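hey so i finally got around to running the thing on that chain from the lab meeting. sorry it took forever, my laptop kept dying and i had to restart like 3 times. anyway pasting the input first so we r on the same page abt which one it is
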Amino acid sequence: VCLFGYVIAPVHAQEGVRVTLGEPHPPGNLNPVVNLSASASYMGEYLYWSLLGIDKVTGAYQPLIAEALPQVSEDQLRFSYQIHPQARFNSGKKIAPEDILFSIKAKLNPFLRQAVHFKGILQDFQSVNIESSGTVVFQLQYPNPEALYLTGTFPILSREVFDPEGLFGAIPLEKFRHPEQLGADEMKAVRDVARQ
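ok and heres what got predicted. didnt touch it at all, straight out
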């Protein structure tokens, strides 16, 4: 099957169904933190989990690693997600709320040129917090018709793979918005993650 320049050919194997994607142009880089190409982003949808997915037929949002669509405050500024208790990375490791926060910080890394693009998107966020219940809460600056896309469709990365010592993840999110506030040790941790 050929769809919008992509060749999609299901191959039946004993374990299930395998989908083969063909791309007329090399995707460049499949690391979701540093890719900007449309083909890499498209392929990344099949490689990385996000809180929400978009049904390719209906265009409706559907939970992927989120337990359900987010609870949305009446003023449309607060989006609260619960991670499905069985959500796991390919390694088998449970996906934790801290991985969500880590993924946002990774996209905001000031040593990546792509951070400029993502930083513009995240300016819509007033804060991203983890409540004691494990709920991930996105607080927006103002109502945004793209809020489900902004809060739910970015790729989730394992902090244990990209930040095994936890130095990068310990840096407050606000410092990624204002990198001039980073201390020397924090700056080293940010550079180390950018090199991966």
